[in-house]
Amino acid sequence: MATVLEPLPPPPLSAAAPRLPMPFPSPPHRLANSRCWSRGHSISCKPQTTKDFAVPRRNAMALIFSSYILSRVDLHDIAFAQQSVVFREYIDTFDGYSFKYPQNWIQVRGAGADIFFRDPFVLDENLSVELSSPSSSSYKSVEDLGSPQEAGEKVLRQYLTEFMSTRLGVRRESNILSTSSRVADDGRMYYQVEVNIKSYANNNELAVMPEDRVVRLEWDRRYLSVLGVENRQLYELRLQTPENVFAEEESDLRRVMDSFRVNKVAG
């Protein structure tokens, strides 16, 4: 008769051997001046691999040099370089003109101009193109407007007419900052006009006592116009920007001005 061996029951907890905490493995340590590493009491050696960490002397020198250059560059210049403006070109082959504008500006339709772009963040900064009616104008050259100064006076009068307000207590101050002419690479002459217009208004225009009518500045803007003639029409590129923004973006705005061209339209 076979004997069945039953498994022994587990020993009581009190008889169990105490568990020793497992030591954390120590990180490998490279022995000085060798290709061997030690971990605890064991030592292992293997060929050294430097593919991922090797830096050629030429690259190392370039890295050191670039680090020195970056340490000499002002942080403001780095931030400015990162925010450099990218331009796009708008070409109207039907009406005959083209210009460049900042890439992040958006086109606004129904603004009354032939084309209208606006900065999405600075709402008072925009550009537009106006052109005279082909049926009621017969310009041969921008010099038909007179001298650049005379053209500037006409441009300023046009701005003041458009900004005329019927509100009580509104006062406008304006002056021509500069007028000039230039011949572009297309051989055509263009006039450039810069004006400043400030708008003032009373905080309480219906007040009886003068001391209760405090005048405050509503807005202070710079307007830059480029005038050109082609197809017997007068073309005007208009740029508007707050005066306190102009100093920061002057180079970009002048690049837009310099890019304006009028083109012959096939009849």
Report on this model:
One of its GO terms (molecular function) is calcium ion binding. InterPro entries: Mog1/PsbP_a/b/a-sand, PsbP_C. Pfam families: PsbP. Residues 87-262 form the PsbP C-terminal domain. This protein has helices at residues 57-72, 75-82, 148-162, 243-259; strands at 29-30, 36-39, 42-45, 87-92, 97-102, 106-107, 115-118, 126-131, 170-183, 189-202, 215-230, 233-242, 261-262. With 267 residues, it is of the alpha+beta class. The chain has a domain at 93-262: Mog1/PsbP, alpha/beta/alpha sandwich (Protein Transport Mog1p, Chain A, 3-Layer(aba) Sandwich). The strands form 3 sheets. Strands 6-7-8-12-11-10-9 form a 7-stranded antiparallel sheet, with helices on both faces. The chain has a 3-stranded antiparallel sheet with strand order 1-2-3, with no helix packed on it. The N and C termini lie far apart (121 Å). Residues 13-18, 20-26, 46-66 and 68-82 have low confidence and may be disordered.
Q: Which regions are unreliable across 5 or more consecutive residues at pLDDT < 50?
A: 13-18, 20-26, 46-66, 68-82
| Name of the CATH first level of the domain at 93-262 | Alpha Beta
The CATH architecture of the domain at 93-262 can be given as 3-Layer(aba) Sandwich
Question: What is the gyration radius calculated from CA atoms?
Answer: 38 Å
Global mean pLDDT: 78
Largest sheet composition: 7 strands, antiparallel
Range of helix content = 10-25%
Strand count? 13
CATH superfamily of the domain at 93-262: Mog1/PsbP, alpha/beta/alpha sandwich
Structural class by helix and strand composition: alpha+beta
| Order of strands across the main sheet | 6-7-8-12-11-10-9
Name the helix and strand elements from N-terminus to C-terminus, one letter apiece.
Answer: EEEHHEEEEEHEEEEHE
Given the structure, what is the number of helices?
4
Distance between the termini: 121 Å
Estimate the strand proportion: 25-35%
CATH topology of the domain at 93-262: Protein Transport Mog1p, Chain A
Shape: globular
Organism: Camellia sinensis var. sinensis
Domain PsbP C-terminal: 87-262
Protein name: PsbP C-terminal domain-containing protein
Pfam families: PsbP
